[in-house]
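Q: Could you write out the predicted structure for this multi-component system? I'm mainly interested in how the pieces pack against one another.
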Amino acid sequence: MIRFEQVSKSYSGGVQALQKISFHIQPGEMAFLTGHSGAGKSTLLKLISIMERPSAGHVFINGHDLSKISRKQIPYVRRDIGMIFQNHRLLRDNTIFDNIALPLIIEGYGLKEIRKRVDTALDKVGLLDKARYYPNMLSGGEQQRVGIARAVVNTPPILLADEPTGNLDPKLSLEIMRLFEEFNSVGTSVLIATHDLGLIARMKYRTLTLTKGRMVQDGLQAEENQGAEL
Amino acid sequence: MSLLFKQRNSAGANQRKLGIVAKIIAFFVGNIRHWLAALGDIWRDPIPSILTVAVLGVSLTLPSIMYVVAKNAQSVEQHWQNAAEISLFLHTDLSDKQIQTFVKQVQLHAKVEKVTFVSNEQALDEFEQLSGFGDALNLLEANPLPNVLIVIPLAEYALASPAADLLTELEQMREVEFGKLDIEWLRRLNAVLSLIKDTMGSLGVLLCISVVLIVGNTIRLSIINRKEEIEVLKLVGATDGFIQRPFLFTGLWYGFFGGLIAWLSIEIMLYYLSGSIVRIADLYQSDFRLSGLSVAEMVNLLLISMGLGLSGSYLVVRKQILLIEPDSSI
Ligand SMILES: Nc1ncnc2c1ncn2[C@@H]1O[C@H](COP(=O)(O)OP(=O)(O)O)[C@@H](O)[C@H]1O
Ligand SMILES: [Mg+2]
């Protein structure tokens, strides 16, 4: 589903953010991406959503080489990827409903279909009663759930999350992770970048570990390795 | 449409095949929502919009006023042109009979509307009365004034140059000593009018450019203000076209309201001026009245100003929206 082949990324300042990264995430797989701050997690996710382009190597989604995707085609690629951010990135002036409806409006869905899908998404994240609220009326955990609802409302085959629990306490974080598991269980591929190792340890999923832009481990996170690597 | 996943097709996006007419109708119907949405955006943040629209209104009023002035001046000109007349001064040695034949001859001329014969006695009488030199004139032995034939050309020969042609033609005639066409002032009026029109043209172009720039700058600022929103739109897969659309419609609305203000100010100004114009016209015993913008002209004004608003936003929207890229997800 998501395949990296010898991908390197250096930023204009000369920073080598990623070096020769290769991995393959299968359709329907859920995986964590971890590493210290500055290890290159966000960069790796940005290469998937084409917010950045690799300096070398190739990224494939569903077998399609992203280097062949033109600027004009990028929006259509992003419609296949649900993205979740640490700071939610909700529109302050729009209601929760309108925020979640955004991907559907962009794709030109009719009003009836939009209502149906937004309600389904709101129901999944347990915020059906807050549809008419504005983002700043919600708690941090609720806002993050709105972000997730927006990411899944058009049922994309891929979900990417960059530090989705960064601002949340452990209990709320676990709730959010359970949501991701739920979406994964219906076949969505999920890749979550986080430095919350405690959380990863409790979840038992494949974990890709980055250190200074290099992939130092790929597999089930073993407890004894955590101390050594991070 | 999905590029990467063949089996995945957004059910909601209508991909029905439409005829060209249906497409055009769908475009307008589909865009009513965007029209209203853009109006809603203006409404939500009205201050910069009001300022912009006011500046547009003023900028558009000036060329429109000049247009109205030129239009009215033209109708004044037409008024006067009908008064073009040629005076033919006849040789003094003609007999009455010769004069009568000549008057008939001119009367029958194809380009002549009307002739009035003023004999030298009539002319002298008139001169006596008007000048008050009656006694002095009595000292003269013979009447020094020539017989004069006043020729009024047909309307289509009343303009400056055909009237001059007619004059040369009549001057060729044996009975005429010389002729005079008092049309210099008409030429001057013409020159002044064309100067006004040229000035209006170039000033109008400058003011239209300023309208485009003002709209462009306002739209540019509002795009910068909504950077965050645009980033989010790009992240969830909005095309540049989708993001541009509301700004283009905002430009159209700016043009519309600017044009409306221009039209209103012209009407107010004309109403204010019409009193004094009537007084002047009465002094000149003319039934001239100021005419404002006709419905067609008003529609034109609105279309032009909307076109300018649209071009202003189009100029900046593409580039500005390209510049905004969803950045570090922080
Ligand atoms: N836009 C950028 N320009 C230059 N350097 C960048 C940019 N984004 C990230 N970096 C650098 O790349 C490295 C990896 O950053 P990032 O991918 O954000 O790491 P993480 O998400 O794991 O904290 C860091 O050293 C960071 O400073
Ligand atoms: Mg990061």
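A: Regarding packing and overall arrangement: Chain B touches chain A through 31 residues (CB under 8 Å).
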